[in-house]
Design goal:
With about 325 residues, this protein is mainly alpha-helical. It is built from eleven helices and three strands; from the N terminus they run ααααααααββααβα. It has two domains: about 5-210 and about 295-325; about 215-290, no CATH class.
Length: about 325
Amino acid sequence: MIWLPVRRRRTTLVVLLALTVGLDLWMVVNGHTSANDLRHTGLCQTVACTQPSELYAPARQAVVVDLVLWLLPLALGLALGVGLVAGDTGTARNRLVWTQGVSRTRWYLVSLGAALGGALLVTLVELPFAHWWAGVAWVDLPTALSLGGSRVQPDVFPVSGVVPLAYTGFAVTLGVAAGAVLRRVPWAAVVTVVVYVALAVAMTTSVRPSFAPTGFHMDGTTDSVQYVDWPSPPPWVIGYEYRLIPGASVPTVRLPPDRVAQACAYLGIHPQDVVTCMRRQGVEGGFVTQSPSNYWRLQWSEAALYLGLAVAFGAAGLVAVRRTQD
């Protein structure tokens, strides 16, 4: 009965591969169209040179493609992972499987391996095209008019490099574990979506910036990204903060840097007056950034974290299957 879970999902895998090939073709067309726009119009990027009603402009398509690529691992987890255990326990098919002389552990590991293999195959078919497309559509276009500028940007980072493979493994094992514990496909799907999205948000806002040392781009006159003279390629701007100027002599009575900035903003009229006031107190404002040179360090660190979570959820699913009373 080991072959049964594999055969039951064979059609799903074929459909997923066909859709992925279609997505690859879409990326090829979109990437070449974006490159042609760059050659023919110079600094004019499609999203800035067309009317808002032109919904099929290459730059607008690039945003949609990016969203599809971001959701692809989650879709694979829902399609191949959630129903792996929950689909059988919810309909009592597991009783037939587990009474045929095959241990639960062996059945689970083989089934999970087949689901992971299929999901990773789909991701491998998509990944080279996505990495190339991200470079053309989001990096090579003029920085001032493009939506990205470097692969370290949070819109591009999750769909390039090696992390999509880790996302896929995590999504599948998460779906399997949720299905094994809850034993109902709809509830397992809801939990998978909520946990995956919540972790993705937390990863971008809190965890990923800590994987490599951050930089500080001093700019005391404004906290608006668009008015800053960024290097090329631009860094990932994590946030804006006030800090003590390194090595500066400061007054004996020390207020937190943000309180000093608030007081100076209240007293100052011109932005330069505010900067002068803050410097007298040994405080400066600026952007916390991640350099594009840290791209692969961030990629491997995040991939390792997701793979660790995938192993943990895979083990949790095995424990749930072994403890099932049916």
